[in-house]
Amino acid sequence: MLTRKIKLWDINAHITCRLCNGYLIDATTVTECLHTFCRSCLVKYLEENNTCPTCRIVIHQSHPLQYIGHDRTMQDIVYKLVPGLQEAEMKKQREFYHKLGMEVPGDIKGETCSAKQHLDSHRNGETKTDENSNKETSEEKQEEDNDYHRSDEQVSICLECNSSKLRGLKRKWIRCSAQATVLHLKKFIAKKLNLSSFNELDILCNEEILGKDHTLKFVVVTRWRFKKAPLLLHYRPKMDLLMVKVTIQ
């Protein structure tokens, strides 16, 4: 099988952000044209524009932020192609949280701890048999499976009812993973209110309907950036569009 080596320079144009000219971090793709940028760069750009920075196609006239999405595949490719990029980004994020005096999220802190334990075991000359190693690996995997995203960055939310047709939640204050989506919240509310379908609900932030695939972290960054916690969300029955026919006599 023939293989051909490709220099990183030759593919830089495909893995860099057009807005900052750096390698893609938290890669986010415009659903309309599939052009990809750093999430922070794109969100900042779309605060004052509604077109794609590359092809200038109109993403959406009034709510362009609802038509972009995290591109995990592209981000994985970038991290694999660029040596040390992921480690450098994790280090920057940890330093950022320390500088603000905030607790480092578990998904960032966890990688540091596991790497440190691995290095310490080698420095102390500790060796493990394959059987013990496999046993510990399976135990760690089981612990991760039972973690239920508790080690993720957390978001505090207040869920308020915005309609007389639905009742309010007994416990409207919740705390969950920042990776949870609006769809997860819809299912949660529907279950608590014994609704036949979660599709009957709309969830709003600042009187704006949220897309079902938006993560809570994305909602906080784009719609609650300079406001204090908790994130205030409202829910109501899904509103059908009424077609009004106007006749001129």
From TrEMBL:
State the organism named in the record.
Anser brachyrhynchus (Pink-footed goose)
Q: Which GO terms describe its cellular component?
A: PcG protein complex
Q: What is the name of this protein?
A: Polycomb group RING finger protein 3
Region annotated Disordered sits at 115-149
PROSITE patterns reported in the protein's UniProt record: ZF_RING_1, ZF_RING_2
Q: Where is the composition biased (Basic and acidic residues)?
A: 117-140
Q: Which InterPro entries does the UniProt entry name for this protein?
A: PcG_RING_finger, RAWUL, Znf_RING, Znf_RING/FYVE/PHD, Znf_RING_CS
List all membrane-crossing ranges.
none
Question: Keywords for this entry?
Answer: Metal-binding, Nucleus, Repressor, Transcription, Transcription regulation, Zinc, Zinc-finger
**Single annotated GO MF:** zinc ion binding
Positions of the RING-type domain? 17-56
- Give the UniProt subcellular location, in the record's own words: Nucleus
